[in-house]
């Protein structure tokens, strides 16, 4: 049975930590690079007490290698000022990580890299997919991407001070922990504390990009040239969601060779922290499988 190991990479002098699961037998169909959202860590994708909700374990059981990375500015790199960069700077570092993965993984690298990304990590994944260096990606699955924020959250974000390295927690209505979850019974209530390995401070550099995302994302989406699976949560209350937002995302992704739009039942914004996480992850892996080159 596959297991999850803690790993560490050095890219351009920055130490990136993460969680890695490889398939049994060594060879992999491909590699999934999983990017967590703002205020989280790699453990968003793999909680020790919830193996059924683990994307790394599920991916490995299906023949894929899954690397859930602590994005630059999180995990081991949180104390390194060079890592607390905006999303374009993070993309550069992650492309550097992709350059070293084939040698590190060997046969466990597979046919290429597929991105699975949540919220702020989804914004980052889409920027990577719009870059020239992103043309070689197999594709991506993004969830919780804020094409537009709820009015309450947009107002709260506009008031957050940006004169420090990490932003303070938002306390305004519509920004509390419960905002990011579905109704009671759809998740473990202990997760509302976001303590332990999941929660982390948000670097200011990426917060500014996320705050301005409704203005910048439409132009990014028009440059994406890889397949995209886009998910909104049934009970999304952090961002504006629903059929109209899905339709707009599909229209803006007009240059992507394939776009699949999906509403995930039974979850709020933090899709992978709900009891329905396995159902969502199975859809992500199915889309990744469909992005493999023919004959793989």
CATH class: Alpha Beta
Give Rg in angstroms: 17 Å
Shape assignment = globular
Named at the architecture level, the CATH assignment is: 3-Layer(aba) Sandwich
SSE layout:
Layout: E1 4-11, E2 14-21, E3 31-35, H1 55-61, E4 65-69, H2 87-105, E5 113-118, H3 120-130, E6 139-143, H4 151-158, E7 166-167, E8 202-203, H5 204-211, H6 213-221, E9 228-233, H7 243-252, E10 259-264, H8 277-290
Parallel strand pairs: 3-4, 3-5, 5-6, 6-9, 9-10
Antiparallel strand pairs: 1-2, 2-4, 7-8
Helix pairs in contact: 2-3, 3-6
Structure keywords:
single chain, 296 residues, alpha/beta, Rossmann fold, eight-stranded mixed β-sheet, two-stranded antiparallel sheet, 8 helices, globular, AB_hydrolase_fold
What does this structure look like?
The protein has 296 residues and is α/β, with parallel strands linked by helices. It has one domain: Alpha/Beta hydrolase fold, catalytic domain (Rossmann fold, 3-Layer(aba) Sandwich), CATH 3.40.50.1820. 29% of the residues lie in helices and 18% in strands. It has helices at 55-61, 87-105, 120-130, 151-158, 204-211, 213-221, 243-252, 277-290; strands at 4-11, 14-21, 31-35, 65-69, 113-118, 139-143, 166-167, 202-203, 228-233, 259-264. The strands form two sheets. An eight-stranded mixed β-sheet has the order 1-2-4-3-5-6-9-10, with helices on both faces. The chain has a two-stranded antiparallel ribbon with strand order 7-8. α3 (120-130) links the parallel β5 (113-118) and β6 (139-143). α2 packs across α3 (120-130) and α3 packs parallel to α6 (213-221). It is globular, with a radius of gyration of 17 Å. It starts with a strand and ends in a 6-residue tail after the last helix. The relative contact order is 0.17. The model has no long low-confidence stretch (mean pLDDT 93). Keywords: Hydrolase. One of its GO terms (molecular function) is hydrolase activity. It comes from Yinghuangia aomiensis. This is Alpha/beta hydrolase.
């Amino acid at each position: 049975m596959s297991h999850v190991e803690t790993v560490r990479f050095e890219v351009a002098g920055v130490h990136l930590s993460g969680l890695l699961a490889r398939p049994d037998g060594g060879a992999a169909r491909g590699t999934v690079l999983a990017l967590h959202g703002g205020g989280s860590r790699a453990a968003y994708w793999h909680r020790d007490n919830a193996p059924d909700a683990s994307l790394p374990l599920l991916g490995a059981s299906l023949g894929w290698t899954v690397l859930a990375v602590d994005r630059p500015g999180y995990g081991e790199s949180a104390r390194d000022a060079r890592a607390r960069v905006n999303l374009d700077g993070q993309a550069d570092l992650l492309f550097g990580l992709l350059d070293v993965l084939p040698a590190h993984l060997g046969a466990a690298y597979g046919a290429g890299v597929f991105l699975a990304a949540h919220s702020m990590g989804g914004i980052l994944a889409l920027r990577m997919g719009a870059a020239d260096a992103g043309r070689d990606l197999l594709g991506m699955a993004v969830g919780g991407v804020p094409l537009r924020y709820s009015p309450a959250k947009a107002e709260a974000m506009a008031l957050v001070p940006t004169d420090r390295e990490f932003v303070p927690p938002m306390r305004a209505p519509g920004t509390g922990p419960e905002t990011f979850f579905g109704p009671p019974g759809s998740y473990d209530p202990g997760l509302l504390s976001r303590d332990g390995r999941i929660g982390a401070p948000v670097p200011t550099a990426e917060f500014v990009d996320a705050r301005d995302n409704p203005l910048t994302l439409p132009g990014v989406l028009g440059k994406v040239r890889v397949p995209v699976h886009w998910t909104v949560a049934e009970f999304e209350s952090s961002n504006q969601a629903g059929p109209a937002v899905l339709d707009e995302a599909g229209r803006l992704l007009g240059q992507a060779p394939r776009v699949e739009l999906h509403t995930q039942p039974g979850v709020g914004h933090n899709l992978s922290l709900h009891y329905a996480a396995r159902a969502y992850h199975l859809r992500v892996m199915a889309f990744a499988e469909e992005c493999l080159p023919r004959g793989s």
